[in-house]
Amino acid sequence: SKLTSLGQLEMTWRSRVHFHPLLVRVLHKSRLRYYGKPEKKLDMPYQAYFEVADGSGMMSMVLWNSLCPEWYNSIKVGTVLLLEQYAIKNSYPFKTQPTPGDSQMKRFPTIEISLNVRDPPTKISIIPEEMVKPEWGLPEVKYRFITRSELDDLPNNHSCDVIGLVTFVGRAERARKREHGEDFWLYRWAHAIDGTSDHPFILELFATSQPDVFEHIHPMTYLVCTQMRVVRDLTENPSSTIYLTTSNESQIFITGWHKGQPYTKDTKVKNFIQWTKTQREADQMKKTVIGGYYPFPRPPNNFLKY
């Protein structure tokens, strides 16, 4: 059928009611958001953002309500979608923006694709990777992997992807979302090494919408974390408190989940796998730790500073 592109949509969306089908690749995926309130009677108050792209550029796509439990787990980073009967809306100005792996990629920030059960009822089709044709011109998923030796030179809030061998994983902890609120964030600390430095990556991993992965991070697993943000304490000794934290678009993968993921083609990932083949499992096992209380960043040495 006749297709349209994201670039054409941006130019013509105000003058149309019905849009031609779209063929796009998913480049980023946000965590699932629950926006239910006691006074609002919605059956499935869920929402999830995806960044999708074709040959003309990248745009946000929003999955609403009952489409979330139906489609959220099936739509992965790298998935190719055919979208029919969707709506176009002005984009929400306060949403988080992932950092694209391809800095040359054009963005269409003013509008977003809205997928709903009705008005109009969206039809979503997943195109298997082996049926994707090169002439469709869909971009490949690109990453920004860094090694541990490169981390010390990166600025605060820099976005990156990492791979490492887990040597420590802490227990799950909770932090209040708001001072006196009832809601909590769930997170755990982990250390991962990649052989390029004496220091590990220190990772603050918030529970994303992947409970099956979050609960099974353990020492000696190969851990991949995407769209992580650099956090460095600029006041005290900057090098001692540098760590990485998850963002709204972070995805976490452990051994058993890597097969078929787009990052397996990345050079730094291949280098890491080569390094692990030179290591003896028994030697690494001796250095691993699990559980316990992990105060980080460390409190100051004396009470006056504290």
Automatic annotation (TrEMBL):
GO terms for molecular function: single-stranded DNA binding. InterPro entries: NA-bd_OB-fold, RADX. It comes from the Eukaryota. Coiled coil: none annotated. PANTHER family: RPA-RELATED PROTEIN RADX. This is RADX protein.
